[in-house]
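User: Please fill in residues for this 306-position structure.
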C-alpha cells in the first residue's frame, strides 16, 4: 500500500506531466479521480495549485512550494526505509546521483557496474543535469550525491573529493601538437579550430585565453556539445580545446591525444564530489559515496598516446 496519500501521488504526477490526462495515462487512474483529488487538495489548502491553461496545467507559486515539500517527503521516506533495512542487517536502498554530461562516460558507469556486482541490493538513478543546476538540485533533495564542476559553495554543500581537470588541445594522435608535452595557445590557434560555444563553460575559458594572449584563431566549426566536438576531431575537421576529463576514455584507447595548455594563468576546471551537509547519509548512500571517492584518483590525466 502506498505510504503517500492519493492526493500527494496524483499531485506529483500532474506536476510532472503537466496535464491530468497524461498523469491519468501514466498512473492508470481515471482522469476524473485525479481531478477530484486535486480539487479537494486545493480546497483543503485554501489555494489553487495549478493554473488551468489551454495547453495544460502549470504550477502556481503555492503548487511549486508544495512540490518541493512532497519531493522532500519522498526522499525522507526512502531514507527511512533504508535505515529500517540497516536495522535488519540488509544492504538495500536506492541512491540518486546527479552528474554533468561530461561524467556520463568512463568513471560513473564503472562505479555503477562495480556496485551492482558487489551490492546487488542497491539500485541507482543516474540523472544528467546542466552543471549549474546540480548544486541547487542536490540541496532541494532531487538527488543524494552529486558530481559537479566548479560548484558554487554554500553552507549546505560539502565537498568530499575533488580533482583538477586542466585544459588542453585535443588532436588526432598523429598531429604535430601531439608530439609535445604541452603547447602554447598561440601554437594551437594556428591550426583549424573546432570551438566550444556557449553555454559550455569552455567558451568563456577560450575567450579569456584570447584576451590574455592577444591571439585569436578562426574557428572552422563551433558546437555546444562535447561529444560532437570529439567526433569532429576524430574525423579530421580540426583540433579543439577541452578539459582532460572530457577525453579520458579516448586518450586511454588511443583514438585522441590531449596536449595540456602551457598557460599557468588559466584556471583548470575542478570536478567535485558533493553531498548535502544538512542530510545524514543512509548506509546504501554511504557505500555509493565510498565507491565514488575511491574512483577519484583514477581521474588523474592519463598518459597521452601518440
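Assistant: Residues filled in for all 306 positions:
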Amino acid at each position: 500500500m502506498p505510504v503517500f496519500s492519493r492526493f500527494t501521488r496524483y499531485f506529483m504526477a500532474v506536476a510532472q506531466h503537466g496535464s491530468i490526462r497524461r498523469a491519468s495515462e501514466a498512473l492508470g487512474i481515471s482522469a476524473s479521480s485525479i481531478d477530484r483529488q486535486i480539487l479537494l487538495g486545493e480546497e483543503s489548502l485554501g489555494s489553487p495549485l495549478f493554473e488551468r491553461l489551454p495547453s495544460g496545467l502549470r504550477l502556481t507559486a503555492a503548487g511549486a512550494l508544495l512540490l518541493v515539500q512532497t519531493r522532500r517527503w519522498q526522499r525522507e521516506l526512502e531514507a527511512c526505509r533504508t535505515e529500517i533495512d540497516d536495522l535488519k542487517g540488509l544492504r538495500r536502498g536506492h541512491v540518486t546521483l546527479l552528474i554533468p554530461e561530461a561524467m556520463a562516460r568512463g568513471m560513473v558507469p564503472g562505479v555503477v557496474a562495480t556496485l551492482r556486482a558487489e551490492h546487488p541490493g542497491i539500485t541507482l538513478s543516474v540523472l544528467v543535469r546542466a552543471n549549474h543546476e546540480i548544486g541547487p538540485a542536490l540541496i532541494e533533495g532531487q538527488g543524494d550525491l552529486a558530481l559537479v564542476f566548479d560548484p558554487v559553495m554554500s553552507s549546505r554543500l560539502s565537498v568530499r573529493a575533488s580533482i583538477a581537470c586542466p585544459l588542453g588541445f585535443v588532436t588526432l594522435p598523429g598531429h604535430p601538437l601531439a608530439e609535445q608535452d604541452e603547447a602554447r595557445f598561440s601554437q594551437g590557434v594556428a591550426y583549424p579550430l573546432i570551438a566550444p560555444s556557449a553555454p559550455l563553460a569552455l567558451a568563456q575559458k577560450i575567450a579569456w585565453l584570447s584576451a590574455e594572449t592577444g591571439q585569436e584563431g578562426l574557428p572552422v566549426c563551433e558546437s555546444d556539445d562535447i561529444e560532437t566536438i570529439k567526433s569532429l576531431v576524430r574525423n579530421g575537421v580540426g583540433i579543439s580545446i577541452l578539459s582532460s576529463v572530457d577525453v579520458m576514455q579516448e586518450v586511454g584507447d588511443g583514438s585522441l591525444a590531449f596536449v595540456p595548455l602551457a598557460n599557468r594563468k588559466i584556471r583548470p576546471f575542478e570536478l567535485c564530489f558533493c553531498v548535502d551537509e544538512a542530510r545524514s547519509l543512509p548506509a546504501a548512500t554511504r557505500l555509493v559515496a565510498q565507491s565514488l571517492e575511491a574512483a577519484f584518483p583514477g581521474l588523474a590525466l592519463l598518459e597521452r598516446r601518440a
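For context: The first strand starts at residue 50 and ends at 53.
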